[in-house]
Write a structure and sequence with these properties.
Elements: H1 7-38, E1 43-49, E2 53-74, E3 79-83, E4 91-92, E5 97-101, H2 104-139, H3 145-178, E6 180-182, E7 187-192, E8 199-200, E9 205-221, H4 223-226, E10 234-238, E11 246-254, E12 265-272, E13 283-296, E14 298-300, E15 305-307, E16 310-317, E17 320-325, E18 327-331, E19 335-340, E20 347-351, E21 362-367
Parallel strand pairs: 1-21
Antiparallel strand pairs: 1-20, 2-9, 2-13, 3-5, 3-8, 4-7, 5-6, 7-9, 9-12, 10-11, 10-13, 11-12, 14-19, 15-16, 16-17, 18-19
Length: about 375
């Protein structure tokens, strides 16, 4: 017959059992911690190997295109438009007809002026002969001084009338020419303000002509930027409506007086317009080069991390992330110039930089270009 264990013995056995279980658990947990300590997780990052390159700082401006030369053409004479053969957008050579007034009144006036001149010339010739005869008679004392003076005055009046008739004829010829409105320079017809059979008056605009061989863009710049601009600086125009096309040009003029309301200065950029693709009034973007530096280090703006008010970047050295304090310069729009803190050959972290810590192991997932 088996004797049941006493309460004291049962307690001791239970305590020993619990102690054994605890030791086993501790041994298992200790082994797991040791395994975890032996492998520290590395942060995945992407890097870009830095290389020195030329830095070009550009000033970006916005404006709209205008023809290099554009004029409103006005009628010089009153009359009725007989024909307007040119159409909008037509290319016209210098001296080519834009419109013509009804020429009949001016042709009639010219014919009358020609006839008037012929009559005046005949009268002047007759007066000259009479003066010559009067002088001969006076030399023989056949006429008085008063009679000679009268003939002399008549000759002078006839000569004045001849000159007036000649001037009238020249004016009639000019009016006949002015009745035909011609292109003052080679260009394209930009506007038609009248049509055939309409009445016009002197000074009334009838058309606009634009020379699109070159275009100009006027922009406004701040007082900080105007100090870095000078006529002749290279510039590049791009027209959103024309896609990726870019047109080289130059800064033509820089204003010297600020607008009293905006405190900005006017600048003008001129560019050749091959094929006349750029038209007046198109939205334009202008880039003007204001600085150039060879051997520069440029990095993407989003690779810069600000810590405690200081711009920093992270590079990879021997598998570890290393923090570099930066001194930054100007930007080219997408990248920023690094004055100090990085050098050619550095492996800059461009993805994963926000979670990187100095001295932290990293794993390269790919190399950015």
């Amino acid at each position: 017959m088996t004797t049941p264990p006493s309460p004291r013995r049962a307690f001791v056995l239970g305590a020993l059992l619990l102690l054994g279980l605890s030791l086993g658990a501790c041994e298992q947990r200790g082994g797991s911690d040791a395994a975890a300590d032996s492998t520290v997780a590395a942060t995945p990052v992407s890097v870009s190997t830095l290389a020195a390159e030329e830095f070009r700082q550009t000033l970006r401006l916005n404006g709209s295109t205008q023809a290099r030369r554009e004029v409103e053409i006005a009628a010089k004479l009153p009359g009725t438009v007989a024909s307007f053969p040119a159409e909008l957008g037509d290319r016209l050579a210098k001296g080519e007809l834009i419109l013509s007034l009804d020429l009949r009144p001016f042709e009639t006036a010219l014919a009358q002026a020609e006839a008037g001149l012929l009559a005046a010339e005949a009268a002047a010739a007759q007066a000259a002969r009479e003066l010559e005869r009067a002088r001969e008679l006076k030399a023989r004392e056949r006429i008085s001084d008063a009679e000679l003076e009268s003939v002399t005055l008549a000759e002078r009046q006839a000569e004045s009338a001849r000159r007036a008739a000649a001037a009238g004829l020249e004016q009639a010829r000019l009016q006949l020419e002015d009745a035909r409105v011609l292109a003052p320079f080679a260009g394209r017809l930009a506007a038609k303000h009248v049509d055939a059979h309409e009445q016009v008056a002197p000074g009334m605009p009838v058309a606009a002509l634009a020379d699109l061989a070159q275009v100009r863009v006027r922009c406004s710049v701040s007082e900080q930027d105007v100090a870095r601009l000078a006529a002749g600086q290279p510039a590049t125009l791009s027209i959103p409506a024309l896609g990726e096309a870019r047109f080289p040009g130059a800064l033509q003029a820089v204003g010297v007086r600020a607008d009293p309301l905006t405190r900005s200065y006017a600048v003008e950029i001129v560019a050749d317009n091959p094929g006349e693709r750029m038209l007046s009034g198109m939205a334009a973007r202008v880039e003007v080069e204001i600085a150039r530096r060879p051997g520069a280090i440029l990095i993407p703006g989003d690779a810069v991390v600000e810590q405690y008010g200081q711009p920093v970047a992270f590079v990879v050295e021997a598998g570890l992330a290393r923090r570099r304090a930066l001194t930054l310069g100007p930007t080219d729009g997408e990248r920023v110039l690094v004055e100090a803190g990085l050098a050619a050959g550095d492996q800059l972290i461009v993805q994963g930089q926000w979670s990187a810590r100095d001295g932290q192991p990293v794993a390269l997932r790919e190399t950015a270009r």
